[in-house]
Design goal:
The chain folds into 3 domains: 101 residues, no CATH class; 107 residues; 92 residues, Elongation Factor Tu (Ef-tu), domain 3 (Beta Barrel), CATH 2.40.30. The strands form 6 sheets. The protein has a 6-stranded antiparallel barrel. A 6-stranded antiparallel β-barrel has the order 14-16-21-20-17-23. The chain has a 3-stranded antiparallel beta sheet with strand order 1-2-3. It is mainly beta. It has 6 helices and 23 strands.
Length: 386
């Protein structure tokens, strides 16, 4: 029996086959190199791990995926000024490694680059013609083998993951006020001269201090309510840092002096013992393993719109599995607009607008540093696992 093939039916079948065939979603964690990435980079003072990772990768938090540990170097996770970061291809996959040389490499001749290569036996240093991307490397001149050495800490300090001066003030000071924190905190009474408003060098009385061993205190008060813009849900209160105080005499009514004041200090403001400043954490930037979602609650010392290096509070924390060093993407909240044809309103989709690195985590709230942005970021914008 002959079959009639209707062109219309064939075309319709092919069309339905295309639109109904499952399409593999584009993974957000696909490893992509920067189009202009270097083959090697010499670390200089002032660099951060994030800066260096950004030179090689479109998503800097994927650094651990291509980082090869050099077992010949003590503390291979730490990178120092003068170290050489090399990008290689192993079995078709990119790989980064750190190399440390025994001595400075001689001056390069015009049209040449210094090459430092790691092998099982050590490091090979020499010069070669500047290679084209993906092209062969032609050796010029002699090479000598150098053994990796342990860098003396007196020579240089390991580079941090992010700028320490940006987040250091937020690592020990209270950031989020909860009922438990208020219950345990002492509070400002009144100045010894009966003054209510206190400033630098003001001596005052306080009550509620519980440990005479604590000599130094932060002074703070209730700030903004940490509330989600979308749901209205309250996550706590921001702690407004007012200044520092030093204990003069401990008792039921203690006596203190304001050692520094950022803002005017008033009766009822709270006193929290100063914690010993920890060393700056060496954050390992990475995406959370689970799906994390939240919202930007506020931005510290920022106006309505902000960008890179802004400190923000977000409505997610350890209860969702969030950890220090986790990286989240920021989504600009889509607004409602009026359809010009249907005359009805609809909501535009959320669009990715930046990247956030979490540096301090509480149970339901965390603080992060905006690392990059494609446009203005606002309170109310969403954050989620990249």
């Amino acid at each position: 029996m002959s079959r009639n093939h209707n062109p219309l039916i064939i075309a319709l079948t092919l069309f339905l086959g295309i639109i109904l065939t499952p399409v593999a979603p584009v993974r957000a964690d696909v490893l992509e190199l920067q189009p202009d990435h270097p083959d090697r980079y010499v670390v200089v003072p002032g660099d951060t791990l994030w800066d260096i990772a950004t030179r090689f990768l479109k998503s800097p938090w994927h650094w651990p995926k291509i980082w090869k540990i050099n077992e010949q170097i003590a503390n291979p996770h730490l990178i120092y000024p003068g170290d050489v970061i090399l990008l290689r291809w192993v079995d078709g996959q990119p790989q980064l490694t750190v190399l440390r040389k025994e001595q400075p490499v001689q001056d390069e001749e015009p049209g040449q680059v210094t090459v430092v290569e790691g092998t099982d036996e050590g490091i090979t240093v020499g010069t070669e013609e500047t290679p084209t991307p993906g092209g062969p490397r032609k050796t010029i001149g002699n090479r000598e083998k150098l053994k990796p050495r342990v860098r003396s800490k007196s020579l240089a300090s390991a580079i941090p993951t992010i700028r320490p001066e940006v987040i250091a003030p937020f690592l020990t000071r209270p950031l989020v006020i909860t009922d438990d924190l208020l219950d345990d905190a002492g509070y400002v009474g009144i100045g010894v001269d009966n003054r209510r408003a206190l400033g630098d060098r003001s001596v005052f009385y306080a009550r509620g201090l519980t440990d005479k061993k604590n000599e130094y205190y932060y002074i703070f008060r209730h700030g903004e309510v940490l509330r989600e813009k979308s749901s209205g849900k309250v996550f706590g209160y921001e702690a407004v840092y007012l200044g520092d105080a030093q204990l003069i005499r401990f008792g039921k009514v203690s006596k203190l002096v304001v050692s520094s004041a950022n803002l005017e200090i008033l009766p009822g403001d709270r006193l929290l013992p100063v914690e010993k400043a920890p060393p700056l954490p060496r954050y390992q930037p990475r995406a959370p393993k689970n799906k994390v979602k939240g919202e930007i609650l506020l931005a510290k010392n920022a106006v309505d719109e902000f960008g890179p290096l802004a400190i923000v509070a977000i409505s997610t924390g350890s209860s969702q599995g969030l950890e220090e060093g986790h990286v989240l993407r920021i989504l600009r909240t889509g607004v409602r607009v009026r359809d010009p044809v249907l005359k009805s309103f609809y909501k535009l989709p959320n669009e990715e607008s930046g990247i956030l690195l979490v540096f301090k985590v509480f149970k339901r709230v965390s603080y992060g540093l905006v690392m990059s942005s494609d446009g203005p970021i606002q309170v109310g914008d969403k954050v989620e696992t990249p």
